[in-house]
Design goal:
heterotrimer; A: 453 residues; mainly alpha; two-stranded antiparallel ribbon; two-stranded antiparallel sheet; 22 helices; B: 167 residues; 9 helices; globular; binds calcium ion
Chain lengths: 453, 167, 453
């Protein structure tokens, strides 16, 4: 067993190389032999601690045949029943829980009731397991090919091919340990974004590629800076998405840009709907965890502060410091996550976050009330026998109101990642819902709302 | 990332048009002025290691008093962070900074608040690593060389801006 | 070369005392003899330069008997005619201009058309001139007494007693040069705030007074820290206000706190209305320049950054640093105003401000459309002969929608002072306007909007 410190050019790496890692090693325990400290942190993502709006709460349950989990996170549906109305007719109205640590991603996906009420595609697994090796195997060495193959399996089949939650190999090159993006969804999504004209000052490498005449394609692993990669590896999964076409291809809706207006316009253009609303019959959409998109609208992204800076801050171990692989709410670790950059007391920093979250939470409540009232109105109008033509406008308002609201509701920082933008989106949602109610009653030029200077 | 030459450009551009012309045509004169200050205003302080010497220029007072309050006051002097390792590089940097700062100080045409130049920022990033190799070895280990300034290196300053002198 | 010699001298003697200043010296030119650099800056507030949303534009006009001004600032009413609808029946619908530098405060107040359409009280002068000496004279040495006396004069009479715009003596003690508050309105307002239970972590001296058992009264000039005074001297005038009772006493509505909900609740409680809306008959309010209130909700106040830090930053004159008395938009002076704390390039800082302002401006537009539509609806309903009882609810919504919108519209940073809060307020305004429209049409439980968890 060789002490790497002895070898000059590797003198920077104090770890012992106990085992050889290659591009087939997806078992984190094996990597852990070389990097025990990171592995220890990684394993601690099983912890469940609640913060004011985040973290998660361990809820005991009696295991069943269908769902052997003995502990789950609290149900968001019980916390706020209005969510059931918003999602009426969709699997989310059956089971939706607070998300918890990475260690649970595979089982939570496998056993959520949402799996029982609908037949989910293999695509799902893209973000809930260590799929890098399985994809390559399924594609005969070709990652993209494997992605396409597994997207088209039934979830159950695809699930069998995966044995770990997100693992070291999903974010790291096993030889250099450098960060790398392994997710086809992100590789294609960021490429589409680069091809758009949406300015992204917070992504220097994309702006550089554009400035250099957009030669061939934007290749994230070749072009992104290390600092960008500290956010991109998370953007592999913490994004809004949909399944495109019969091939169920996982797609990130970034063709026009990352802002809500641009994503909405994209879905309208491709005519996508996730389901038809049970009460209102509106063609609605489900937004999901757009942490990456929202972070991009915030001051931290603008200032070059990456996800890893806050969610995997450096922590000191003896003489050296390493990245804390216990990925979690930074509010459980304010000292390392925030205080190097912000010299305020921990309690003060917590209060600042909760002020931003509190405003967001209040507006979320108002937007939720408005939406639920609109849905009730359309339901009544429908029962009174109004025609689809008569309901069309109100339903269109619902589609927008609902997607805008859900975009913030599903974003897991309760607004912190982009405080002003989150509240702006909720304000627009309220405007849509209420205009829908007015439209149903007739007599006001609703278009005016867009006639704004 | 602008290279050293570009950043000199920035520094020059920060002068008014008139000054820019002056610099262009009358470098000799500039040398005269710079040289004068170099002596009178103790511009040669650059050649010493005494932080107080840096503060011979009141425009350095802020950093000096900041340094006195900083975590590094007892462990690093200005030059530990603002000059590269190696005698030659060290004196080249000191001479050029010393000359240009003297020049700008005298002609009073520098951007305020004073901002570190790209070249000197890299010097400083290297300085951090020089003393903290042990602590930072791991986080730099897998970067492509991790040379300060190159895309694969982390910037220490991004998170530890205040270590030298509170801003 | 002289340059350096001078500099070494300056360092030694910052200024010469040429004249003696006492508590009667309200002429800034006299103060200027001792402090020529500050005086020069002070005089430069005549400059008119426009920024994207602020500053002001010099608009030439032909002087008339009634209004001898040959240059004014651009009309906000022409920029956005919706303002006329919002203020229908009130003096503001006749003349409302972009505000400009301090040098103009006296003449702009004297010659605005708003003076011709209504008889204004002497109270007005409190914030538009150097009233410290006049108040003391009118009160026989007693500032408060003089305040009461002049409040009850006609504007014209009070005006005659004042000869300068805000001047050195209004912010400085002539002997120590220390900052001091000279405005009765603020002295009483901040006292009322201190007596309330609204937490104000951004005002340490108030929190300390409360913690010490609220002994006698909070005395701003005795208790406030120097850093607090760097904001309080501005808060003397850049605040929301109204004239209380027949004595027309200038009052800042802070009894319950500085947030919009608290100010609204205060006005409801005292049953105050500024006028009855011409089109709708609603009892409405006019919000005015709540810079101090909004700044208090923002991250800068929370971080102890005062008005003077950005609007009067230190500038170096040779060896000494003085406060730039050319009070103006910081965007005209980004390097001194911002870069001491933010190491970003000037252009980048401008873009960050404009991003925050852009979101605010967009929401302002949506809120304005919603309000204008509500007013139109009430007008129609009224013409159709609906009773006051039937209109009561919609009018109440208008009262709220309008005050919330105006609170941001009248706040002069276009949201920058508290970006998320500004957009939140506008979102609530939209919710009020649209609910008013729905209420007029009947059939929805509007209260639900308040039933938010
Ligand atoms: Ca969670
Ligand atoms: Ca202005």
């Amino acid at each position: 067993l060789v002490n790497i410190m002895e070898r000059k050019q590797e003198a920077r790496n104090p770890f012992y190389r106990v085992v050889e890692l290659d591009d087939e090693t997806d078992d984190p325990e094996v990597w852990g032999k070389n990097f025990p400290l990171q592995y220890d942190g990684y394993r601690r993502t099983v912890d469940q601690v609640r913060t004011r709006y985040g973290g998660s709460e361990a809820e005991p349950r009696t295991p069943t045949q269908a769902d052997p989990r003995s502990v789950v996170a609290q149900s968001r549906l019980e916390e706020d029943p209005r969510l059931k109305t918003m999602w009426a007719g969709y699997a989310f109205s059956k089971d939706f829980r607070e998300e918890r640590g990475h260690a649970y991603m595979l089982e939570d996906q496998t056993f959520t009731e949402r799996q029982q009420v609908t037949q989910q595609p293999g695509t799902c697994i893209h973000c809930h397991g260590s799929v890098y090796v399985p994809y390559k195997r399924a594609g005969g060495g070709d990652l993209m090919r494997g992605f396409e193959v597994m997207n088209q399996m039934k979830f159950g089949e695809a699930r069998k091919l995966v044995s770990h939650p997100v693992s070291c190999i999903d974010c790291h090159d096993p030889t250099s340990m450098q960060l790398r993006v392994t997710r086809p969804g992100f590789i294609e999504g960021i490429r589409a974004l680069a091809n758009s004209d949406d300015p992204v000052p917070q992504m220097p490498s994309v702006e550089r590629w554009r400035a250099d005449g957009r030669k061939d394609v934007y290749d994230v692993n070749r072009m992104a800076s290390r600092q960008e990669m500290r956010a991109f590896v998370c953007g592999q999964c913490h994004v809004e998405y949909y399944f495109k076409g019969p091939e169920k291809r996982l797609t990130y809706p970034w063709q026009k840009g990352l802002k809500i207006e641009q994503i909405m316009a994209y879905y309208d253009e491709v005519g996508h709907k996730d389901w038809e609303h049970l009460d209102s019959g509106a063609p609605v959409l489900k937004a999901q965890h757009p942490e990456f998109e929202m972070w991009n609208q915030g001051i931290h992204a603008r200032s070059g502060v990456a996800c890893a800076d806050c969610h995997m801050p450096y922590v000191r171990h003896g003489a050296m410091k390493i990245s804390d692989h216990h990925v979690r709410s930074p509010l459980l670790n304010i000292n390392n996550a925030c205080q190097t950059c912000h010299k305020w007391p921990e309690e003060e920093l917590r209060l600042r976050v909760e002020t931003i979250q509190g405003r967001t939470h209040r507006m979320r409540g108002l937007a939720m009330d408005a939406l639920v009232q609109l849905i009730a109105d359309i339901k009544v109008a429908r029962e009174q026998g109004r025609t689809d033509a008569e309901l069309q406008q109100a339903r269109d308002f619902q589609r927008r109101a609902q997607f805008y609201l859900d975009f913030v509701e599903a974003e897991n920082s309760t607004g912190f990642h982009a405080g002003q933008e989150a509240v702006r989106i909720l304000g627009e949602s309220i405007n849509f819902s209420r205009q829908g109610q007015v439209a149903l009653r007739g007599g006001v030029v609703v278009q005016a709302a867009h006639a704004t200077p | 990332m602008p290279d050293a030459r570009k950043s000199w450009g920035r520094t020059l551009l920060s002068a008014t048009t008139l000054q820019a012309v002056l610099v262009g045509v009358a470098f000799g004169a500039a040398l005269g002025i710079g040289g004068y200050t170099f002596i009178y205003a103790k511009g040669y302080s650059y050649l010493t290691n005494d932080p107080a010497a840096c503060a011979n220029c009141h425009v350095m007072d802020e950093q000096y008093s900041g340094w006195l309050k900083s975590s590094h006051r007892s462990v690093a002097v200005c030059n530990d962070c603002h000059t590269p390792p190696g005698t030659l590089g060290k004196y080249y940097t000191k001479a050029s900074n010393g000359f240009w700062h003297s020049y700008y100080f005298t002609t009073d045409t520098f951007h305020e608040p004073i901002r570190i130049t790209e070249r000197n920022r890299r010097v400083t990033e290297q300085a951090c690593r020089k003393c903290h190799a042990e602590v930072t070895g791991v986080i730099d280990a897998h970067a492509g060389g991790g040379e300060a300034g190159d895309d694969s290196a982390l910037s220490c300053i991004r998170c530890h801006r205040n270590v030298g002198h509170m801003h």
